[in-house]
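Q: What does the assembled structure look like for these inputs?
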Amino acid sequence: MKQVKVILFNLILLAFSILTVVPFVWMLVSSFKPNSEIVKIGGSFLPDTFTIQNYINVQERFDFLRMFGNSLFVAVVVTGTVIYTSAIVGFALAKYTFKGREFIFGMILGTMMIPWAVTIIPRYDMIVNFGWLDSYIALILPSIFSGFGIFLLRQNIMTIPDDVIEAARMDGATEWYIFHRVILPMSRNAISSIAIFQFLWVWEDFLWPYLIINTQSKQLIAVGLKLFSGQYGTDYGGLFAATAISIIPVIIVYVTFQKRFIAGISGAAVKG
Amino acid sequence: MNGNVVERKKQSIFSLKNVTIVILLLHFSIFMIYPIIMAFVGSFHHWNPLSNVFEFTGIENYIQILNSKLFWTSMSNTLIFSLVVIFFRVSIGLVIALALYSKLSRFKTTFRTIFYMPTITPLVAVSFVWVWLYNPQFGLINEVFNLDINWLRDSRTALPAVMVMTTWKDFGYATIIYLGGLMSLPKDAFEAAEIDGANSWTAFKYLTWPLLTPITMLVAVTSLITYLQSFIQILVMTEGGPGTSTYTISYLIYEDAFINYNFGSASAMSVVLFVCISGLTLISFKLTQKKAGV
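A:
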């Protein structure tokens, strides 16, 4: 009886998880079908003729790998910088006392509530005035500090005992040395959850690169996908392939790091 | 709390603390404070960057948007969209979390990984996938259920269709947060309840659910802030249509600002949106505090 219950229970969970992954599987499978087969009414789920022509077409018409590389570059630079700035600001806010400390921290938290629609218009105007349109500096510079990152690292660094810092100080370590050699290594877990999140946010960011970047060869992949669908709206095979290229790497990264990832967010939620 | 540990030595102006805080404040002023002030100021101006116009018009932008039917349609669409998606995100997220937490479930890690997968994929890309799932010609949904509905081109089904996609994408986040919450619940209270002969429904109603209130509030408030700003799925899936049936306020702001270049009225709408978001967030926090008896 217990056995039956367990099997039934898990079958329901299995049904739910199939519902969850079916859109991904369908997209991936369809990306290997020729267009004629995709639009065929009552066609089969699996491809009758297996082809990688869609991927070749996307690459030849649109240079998707280039956009993939652009996204990778911007995402790595922003993520690396955000990790460093979050840690150092988090350290300053957690382990130093100074006038206005609580105010600054409150302000950082407050800005997490500001809708993007409020800041994006003046920011765009500012970038135009700086003459930074179509440059990566406009994509990178506004994002080098993250309220979420600072919050997470501050909470984490607060839990590092003062004795550790005091001991390093006794040995004559400078503040910078303490930050780089003591605080950073001890924040490894918080850093890895920020790394994954920040990377994803840059990877999926659409509107800002769409407004800033005009040259197609400089464009990022999320925008590239939309541009491709605008120009080749009926090339469904190509669209499936392009979407697969922009999703699959993220899923691979996620499945590889999922343990740390999930520990990172559920931990932050419970502590917060 | 943690005090002056590092500060004992004589400090130069270029100490870690000073350098960090000064750069932070500088960056903050340029890319956060200035734009916020500018949005507020701009909302009282006729502002078009293409024709280089920036003229003070008082509250004209506000009067104009408050008299616009499209604005109110967008507001009500946004509110309905947010409330429905939050409801399903929270309830599906909680049910799945309880299922994964239960002693009956196997392969917990695998299931958890799968349920969280849509959350970590780019919204632009999955919105496209769903456009094709809903495609009346070759979409999987019509094919499987043997229907003939043009989901995204019918004003009765378009908004619900986007809601379904958003719920599918986001319920996994609620599941993970709830799982974290469930794992931190006090075990002895549940043991005591079991000894007293409480069945699992009573235990859920009087123990689990009240104890999870802070988690529910966390999920609900972060969802509210996110969904009141929904934009990408609208842009990719419906572009506000058919008619105006899926216009959300953020989509309207985008269109007003970056298609029509009415920066002034778009700023006015963004200020209204900001007031709504912070108002609703504050109310939610107050409600939680009352409930928690603080």
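Chain B has a mean pLDDT of 88.
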